[in-house]
Structure to design on (293 residues):
């Protein structure tokens, strides 16, 4: 079934990344349908909603797990995988021609024994349950719906990011700074990550929607490593002096990971626009204006 040219669908539209993507699509005048838990893409009979079948691109940003949940609640991992498989099977049965785009994890699926920055063809060997869960979703997509696109995003942050256990260091650190509590640092100060603003991830996904041909896997990140020490320096510059309590790294924490984004640059014409300090200032202002968040 051919979709309406240019129409996009976002599954998981009420989430942090999904909502930013909806905003970015609509800002560019792209007709967009949003699906959430209260407005599901699949009916009780597992039939796709008509708007799902009317799409040119389906963005799958739905997820119920993070690194800590994946470690502690394997049933949630299995439920996410089953839902994705059901959706893909339903699309195939309905003969949907939409491009399916799944947002995966660029920070956890690559082999930590390899040297970053990680390009899309770098070895994958996740250390933790979260990375293994995301890689399993990628395998389901390749198996059930070949021709789909997997976008491996780095550590997204920005205004609107909810507080989640075991995920989102900036969300935790900035709330601690706002509330006058010490920052909790897990792992050595030299631990490095790739922090990319959620608006940049959203603009990269919009670029995927607009291209006739896209590689099966594509990285979106800042393209640079930022250590926890460097991140703390920016936090103190923006928020003022804050205390720090250092803890050992957790089982799912990686020592260093960041992405090679040259494919996104050459194929999509995409480069991240929001520098780390600018993004932190924006997130800090949002948190101070929303003291209950």
């Amino acid at each position: 079934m051919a979709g309406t040219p240019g129409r996009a669908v976002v599954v998981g539209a009420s989430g942090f990344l999904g909502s930013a993507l909806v905003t970015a699509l609509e800002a560019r005048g792209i007709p967009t349908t949003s699906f959430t838990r209260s407005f599901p893409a699949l009916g009780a009979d597992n039939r796709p909603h008509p708007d799902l079948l009317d799409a040119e691109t389906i963005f799958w940003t739905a997820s119920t797990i993070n690194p800590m949940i994946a470690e502690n609640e394997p049933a949630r991992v299995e439920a996410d995988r089953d839902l994705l498989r059901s959706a893909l099977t339903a699309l195939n049965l309905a003969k949907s021609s939409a491009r399916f785009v799944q947002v995966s994890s660029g920070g956890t699926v690559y082999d930590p024994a390899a040297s970053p920055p990680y390009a899309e063809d770098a070895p994958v060997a996740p250390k933790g349950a979260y990375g293994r869960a995301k890689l399993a979703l990628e395998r389901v997509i390749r198996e059930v719906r070949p021709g789909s696109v997997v976008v491996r995003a780095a550590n997204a942050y920005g205004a609107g990011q909810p507080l989640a256990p075991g995920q989102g260091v900036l969300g935790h650190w900035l709330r601690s700074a706002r509330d006058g509590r010490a920052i909790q640092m897990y792992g050595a100060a030299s631990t490095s990550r790739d922090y990319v603003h959620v608006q940049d991830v959203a603009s990269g996904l919009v670029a995927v929607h607009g291209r006739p041909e896209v590689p099966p896997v594509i990285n979106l990140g800042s393209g640079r490593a930022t250590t926890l020490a460097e991140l703390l320096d920016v936090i103190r510059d923006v928020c003022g002096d804050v205390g720090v309590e250092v803890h050992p790294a957790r089982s799912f924490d990686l020592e260093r990971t960041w992405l090679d984004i040259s494919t996104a640059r050459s194929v999509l014409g995409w480069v991240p626009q929001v520098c780390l300090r600018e993004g932190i200032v924006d997130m800090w202002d949002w948190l101070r204006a929303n003291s209950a968040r």
